[in-house]
Amino acid sequence: MGMRNIIIVDLDHTISDARWRDHMLMGPGRTDWTAYHRAAVNDLPVEAVIKAVDALHAAGMRTVALTGRTQDHEASTIAWLVQHLVPIDLLLMRPADDHRQATIVKEELLKYALGEDWPAQVLLAFEDNEHVAELFAIKGITVLRPVLPHHIQQDQPNDEEDQKEARTGSSQ
Ligand SMILES: [Mg+2]
Question: Which domains does the chain have, with CATH numbers?
Answer without folding.
Answer: 6-17+45-150 (3.40.50.1000)
